[in-house]
Write a structure and sequence with these properties.
three-stranded antiparallel β-sheet, four-stranded mixed β-sheet, Spore Coat Polysaccharide Biosynthesis Protein SpsA, Chain A, 42% helix
Amino acid sequence: MLKGPQAKILCLIDEEGDISPKDMYEVRARLPETAIVRFIPSITWGGISQVKSWIEAMSYAHERLGSWEWIINLSAECLPLKSSVELNDFLAEGFRRNIVSYMLFYSDLGYKVDKKNVSTNELVDGCEEMLRCDPRRISDYEVSRARIRADAGQATEGIVQRMIMEWPFRGALRCNEIGNKRISLRRLTKIELDDRARFLSTFGLSGGRAWFGFHRVMVSAILNSSITQQLYNGLQHFLCPDEMFFQTLYNNISDKLPGHCEPFNFHFAQGEPLQVSDENSSEILSSDAWFVRKVSYHECPAILNAVRDRVKS
């Protein structure tokens, strides 16, 4: 959270994650003394728990962390590329231009970013595109993040690869988090299919990156809108709802906001490369990004030293 150049850090740690006592010690050593550390229930990739943790973090910050203006979500592998003073100046200028939200939208869901300009027919066509998808007669399928990555990396057109890469498949399946950081995927029943069709025709979907920067007025709107809960209920059994929740929510509350969204997600190359090393240093350091993801602190000494020098100057 930011107010002026001052930053407050709220660190959420997965209770069932693979963080060791040594890792925890290193995390605390990197955080300022004022950082707040909270343990949260298990977060499963591909499920709604990620969205839930962010909403709960916003609620905690809004109710208990006093005065702040902006909230930005980051992972433990994110590295800031500029100082908080530079970031504050950027955000303050954006707010002067009436920007209350930064996040990236994709257009591959078949919906325009501004829902008010989408006709009913276009929304129905988009729903049908999702609901027509045949997930190859899946009866039941359990998958972990490691399995998804392995299957998606194969050259063959495996079902998992298609589910991850093709947005319509995410709407044609029912996703459940089943513990041990695993999800189950199956085809929708007739009743579920009808319910999902009604949901899609009501809201439409917009997809994008899961990373955002929200002004406090945007956070307040999220926490106080009844649409937030409706959307949560409707998306909780989608695959990867974190990559569509806040984009879709914004499109459904934008007419009540005293500002607009800038399509920008702060991160270098939209999350690529998958793992950063010093080989990427010149490209990363010359970019206009504020953060870079997938940083291994043991394999990027050149990037880390350059960032420290940049912040000090």
